[in-house]
């Protein structure tokens, strides 16, 4: 890090959680990773079929994931200029984020039944996992943690243009995973992801969101309204420009703790803007997935994801 940087420049340059949302907080990117995990997809043509995304947008997302070290290109045959895109170790580390997203969708949305199902192979239990503290082994929810936020941190994510251009066509042509749904409103949009993260960390007032985010008031108002429309946030009666998480918004805790965890793996040298502490044991929360059937650990070795069931055509 350049010691001549002013603190402002340093902060703006490296906010690992914002950078993580910038990369992963995108519905197509999450869909690509989902297909890699669920059906072992490694090829451009297969992702194209599965998502219905415009080819140029798909190329852009695969390039971003390769640049970030989440996927690596491997020639399909010797001398071929076609590539497979394989998950790296960092790519595989996004697995619990996807598992939490699917689990949330199954529990909190009407379309949840169409999302991939988690099966704990060890005991046969089927369904979403619990989050536990890796230090003390106790199950945790957001209510068991304290989130310390660097009040000076600035959250900058890529603004609308790139996303907007991909959004209409992708939604129209796409399969089930590209259609509108609440979790994608909260996570699959970079700004909304940052807002939801700040809300989980205790931010409530419009002015506070505004000062933490490098965002225009119009965009902030738009995203807050969208998060209220999908019942992630609500406005307490009688409050002026104040927002709080609904129960389904608070249930996104698991998704965010694994996003924060992943940001620490992706940016190991950079202190993050959020510290999640497990109040009972006092440790920094190292989240783990735990089976609700047998309390055993849930990971890629001990669990499988059952394929996305195609949504019947109306
Ligand atoms: Zn603990
Ligand atoms: Zn189990």
TrEMBL record:
Keyword annotations: DNA-binding, Transcription, Transcription regulation
Family annotation (InterPro entries): HTH_HxlR, WH-like_DNA-bd_sf, WH_DNA-bd_sf
UniProt domain HTH hxlR-type: residue ranges: 15-113, 176-271
Keyword DNA-binding: yes
Protein origin, superkingdom: Bacteria
Gene Ontology molecular function: any one: DNA binding
PANTHER family found in the cross-reference section: TRANSCRIPTIONAL REGULATOR, MARR FAMILY, TRANSCRIPTIONAL REGULATORY PROTEIN
Protein name, entry field: HxlR family transcriptional regulator
Species this chain originates from: Rhodococcus rhodochrous J45
